């Protein structure tokens, strides 16, 4: 079972992002502060859970968390500041939205920038170690998936409802045939023959 948090005596939020490796759509982060008596036997890294389980846990987290927030950083901003900076920015913006500001921040991964003067710790594979990071990973993943399902309706030929914007063979074949949309990240290598790609704006 995952641990609740790193510092038991502090108000601590967990934060994580989803969508860093995608060719299309935003990078999405979430921040969550859980109550000190929170526990759940199935809460884990969102990548280890089925979509049905993630959606079930999303409802539980939103009901029981002391506070939570999520943020999409869109494609143009990703292209301007790069995906790492956009991921950290999404985390910062999510923390800013929390109705209670944390005394400590736990981050999934190994890269972060200081959020004011709040102490923090990066935890490799933290979404499989701490409940609040796992909760943030689930909110980030489910909110981003919902966004991709919405834009799928505008461009169903790319099948974002299924591939979520990741570089699958199907997704790249659609880019090769139809070009890129405003939802594609222009700074990413959309195709191996990137320089030959006709970037259509739809």
UniProtKB/TrEMBL annotation:
Q: Name one Pfam family in it.
A: RNase_HII
The protein's role, per its UniProt record = Endonuclease that specifically degrades the RNA of RNA-DNA hybrids.
- State its location(s): Cytoplasm
Per UniProt, where does a divalent metal cation bind?
Answer: 16-17, 108
Name of the protein in question:
Ribonuclease HII
One Gene Ontology BP term is: mismatch repair
Q: Which UniProt keywords apply?
A: Cytoplasm, Endonuclease, Hydrolase, Manganese, Metal-binding, Nuclease
- UniProt KW Metal-binding keyword: yes
> Record's superkingdom?
Bacteria
> Coiled coil located at which positions?
none
* Primary location group: cytoplasm
Q: Which CDD domains match?
A: RNase_HII_bacteria_HII_like
User: Which residue ranges does the record assign to the RNase H type-2 domain?
Assistant: 10-200
Q: What is its EC number?
A: 3.1.26.4
What does the entry comment about cofactor binding?
A: Manganese or magnesium. Binds 1 divalent metal ion per monomer in the absence of substrate. May bind a second metal ion after substrate binding.
Q: What are the protein's GO molecular function terms? A: manganese ion binding; RNA binding; RNA-DNA hybrid ribonuclease activity
Q: Per its Swiss-Prot or TrEMBL entry, what cofactor is needed? A: Mg(2+); Mn(2+)
| Cellular component aspect of the GO annotation | cytoplasm; ribonuclease H2 complex
Q: Which SUPFAM superfamilies match?
A: Ribonuclease H-like
Q: Which organism is it from?
A: Marixanthomonas spongiae
């Amino acid at each position: 079972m995952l641990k609740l948090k790193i510092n038991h005596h502090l108000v601590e939020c967990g934060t994580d992002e989803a969508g860093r490796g995608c060719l299309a759509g935003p990078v999405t982060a979430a921040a969550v502060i859980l109550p000190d008596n929170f526990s759940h036997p199935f809460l884990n890294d969102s990548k280890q859970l089925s979509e049905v389980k993630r959606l079930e846990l999303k409802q539980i987290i939103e009901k029981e968390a002391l506070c939570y927030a999520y943020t999409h950083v869109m494609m143009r901003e990703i292209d301007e500041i790069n995906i790492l900076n956009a991921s950290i920015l999404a985390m910062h913006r999510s923390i800013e939205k929390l109705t209670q500001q944390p005394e400590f921040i736990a981050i999934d991964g190994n890269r972060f920038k200081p959020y004011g003067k709040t102490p923090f710790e990066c935890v490799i594979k933290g979404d499989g170690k701490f409940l609040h990071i796992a909760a943030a990973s689930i909110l980030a993943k489910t909110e981003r998936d919902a966004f991709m399902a919405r834009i799928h309706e505008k461009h169903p030929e790319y099948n974002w409802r299924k591939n979520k914007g990741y570089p699958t063979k199907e997704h790249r074949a659609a880019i090769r045939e139809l070009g890129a949309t405003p939802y594609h990240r222009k700074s990413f290598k959309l195709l191996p023959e990137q320089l030959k790609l006709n970037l259509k704006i739809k």
